[in-house]
Every structure is written in C-alpha cells, then in structure tokens.
Amino acid sequence: MAFLRNISDRFWGYISPRKTQQRRDKPFKALPTPCKPVPKLNPRSMSPAARVNSWHLTTPSASAGAGERNHPLTPTSLERPYTDFEGDTLIDELIDGISDDEAFDANEETIVVDEDKYEAKDYDPETERRRRDKQGKELQAAGWSKDAIFLFQKLGMRGFEPLMPEAWAMDFVMMPPTLFTSNLDRAFIKPAHGNNFRATKALKTLLELGARVRDSIITKSLQRTPEELIRRGISAYNRWATTDGKVDASSNIPMLAIEAGHKDTPTSVLQENMLRKLGNTASRFRDTFRIRPSVERDEEGDENGSQSEDPPSEEEFSHELPTIYGVIVSHTVMGFVSYDTKAETPFLRTVAIFDYGQGDYDVWNSLAVAILVIHCRNKMMELKGALSEFSSAVESDPDA
Strand pairing of 164-165 and 349-355? Predict the structure, then answer.
C-alpha cells in the first residue's frame, strides 16, 4: 500500500495546479521590445481652401502603364499633325479638290463660344429667315437643287433651331436647351418608327466619334485609323436610321455613299471613287423610275419609220429623280457632297466641310452627320412607296 501511495503522490504532484516551477536564470538578459514611435500629427484646418492647398498635383509621366497607353488623353487642335510636307492643311487640300467654282460651305459660319455668350447672344428669327431666303435664291441661281438647298440651310441652322425632342434633354445635358422642343413635328433628329432608347444610344455613340478619332492619332493603330473610325461611325448611325425607318439597303436604293482614304491619298482619287459610286446609284434610280414605252407605241413608231433620238426628259420618269449625297473622308476631315441625278454632266457639289480634329466642334460635327443621315432616311421613306409600286408592276408584267 505504501508503494501505491507513493505513486499516487508523485502523480498528483505532477498534475497538481498548485505545483510551482523553479525559475531558471538565463545566462543573458533579454532585450525589451522597443516601442513604435508615434508621429506627432500637426493639427490642420479642415476648411476648403486649406484642403485644396494641401493637394499635390503632378502631370502624367511618359512611362505610363499599358492601360493608360491604350486610352490616351485627347490632344488639342494645336497638337494635331494635320499638315502635309508643304505646310498646307488637309482642309484646304480637300476643299480645292472637290469644290466647284462658286463654292458654298454650310459650316463656314459655325463658331464655338462660351455658354454664357451663347445664351446671351441676341437671335432674331425674322432676320435669320430673310437671310436664309436670300441665300436660298443665290444657291438656286448657282444651279443647286431644292433638296440640296434644304440640307444646306438645315446644316447652317443647327444651333439656332430645335433639332431633338424635349424628352432627350436629360440624355444630352451638355447641349443648350434651345436644341430641344416639345413639338415633335419640329424635331428633325428623331426616330421614325422605333423607340427613343435606340435613337439616343445611336446619337450618343456618334457624339463620341471625335474623341475616338483624335485618340487613334496618338495610338497610331494600323486598323483603327481616323478615316476608318469616321467611316464606321457614319455607317453605324446610317444603319440605325435606315433600320428605324424600315428602308434598309437590302430592299431599297441607298441615297448616301461614303468614301474614305488615308491622308496621303490624293483627293482626286477620292473624288473619282465617289463620283463612280454616286453615278451607279443615279443609274439605278433612273432605271427604276423610267417609263417604259408600251408595245403598241413601239409598233406605231416602226410603222411611221421614225424613232425619237432625243435625250430623256423629266416626263419620261414616273417619279422625280432625287438628289443623292456622299461623304468624302480624308484623315480627320470629311466633306459632304451632293449629286444631281438630273444633271446632263455628272459632278460633285460641295455642301459642307468638317474637321473632327477640332475638339471644340465635336458636338456640332456629329449633329451635322446626324442631319445628313436623317435627311437621306426621310427621302428614302418618301420614295419607298414609288419603289414598291415599281416592284409590283415588274412582277405583274411578264414582258418587263
């Protein structure tokens, strides 16, 4: 029993909480952990002026990351290399290449001013109307068609008259309120059969075109060149407009053509290509609306032994031939041209010249594109009925 008692005492002494351990002195003294110094915070003022003065502003360095290189800042107009080796601007070269003797430009009076000056500018509608009437007579005397005169004056009046529905004002807060109207009949840029969401989305994308064009100059991309971006932007907006008006090119004759080229491409080459495109379109309109002589009339002419060799006149067409349009793009510069399908000698007439390289004019340039595209869409909608009648007549006539 004594043996078992000794074992129990030793075991209890091993696990007993009252057991004390003998402190072992270390041969060296442990250094205390140093305390982290607490910096003294200088009391500062929380006023707006004091907080602004404490900002440290630095300019971006040239060694930016890959993400920043892909999205560079938009350069100003003075930083743009838009002159050729002789020092002539691309705008002058484009004007000299496609303009006629009596040149008019719907964009020559467009200027950009501060918002305060814009709102304070005195505008007399009656005086402007008389000036536009006088200008219309001058254009008509110069040989312009009525349709081209309407487009010319509509481009020149942007900024002076409403263009969009009032419901779009919240989507385009950067635009002056005078560009919006509650009267849908006065709104020119609007959907024909679609909804406002797709219309505003298409216009927003078009308004961003100028910034993307200038950014492509810095990135120097081989695919995303300035002229290619402008061509895509106009084509995308035209695709929305024709789809909205149910006059897509698959079943209708287009009234707008686009010809884009590098800044080193001669303007004469762009002009020849555009003249060929619009000439082919004009031939399609003439062939569509030409009145075919009946079989009885042909037999009567053969019996008399005489056939008319006079050139075709307007009476030989079932519908008035329309004026068609084109956009010539060279680098950041684009020119609107018109083509009279009734003219004996085909030629291009300059309507307006625009430059997406000027950042202050992005909104007005894009609005000009929208006006041109919407005008062509409206004309295609007017001609849709005549084209449908011609298609029905051809299908019902087996000898056509």
Answer: unpaired
Residue 299 lies inside a defined structural domain of this protein: no
Question: What's the count of helices (H) and strands (E) in the chain, helices before strands?
Answer: 13, 6
The average pLDDT across 303-329 equals 72
As a whole number of angstroms, the distance between CA 91 and CA 99 comes to: 11
Mean pLDDT of 221-247: 94
Domain count across the chain: 1
CA 333 from centroid of its chain's CA atoms: 13
Q: What pairs with residue 328 in β-bridges?
A: 259, 335
Residue 218 placed within a domain: yes
6 domain residue, yes or no? no
Q: Is 33 a member of any domain?
A: no
8-state DSSP, 101: S
- What tens digit of pLDDT does each residue of 37-87 get? 766 666 666 677 776 676 766 555 444 444 444 444 444 443 444 433 333
CA gap 368, 203 in Å, rounded: 11
pLDDT band for 304, please (50, 70, 90 cuts).
low
Query: How far, in Å, CA of 157 to CA of 150, rounded?
Result: 11
Give the structural domain span for 225: 90-291+315-396
| 3-state percent breakdown (helix, strand, coil) of the chain, nearest 5 | 50, 10, 40
The pLDDT assigned to 24 comes to: 63
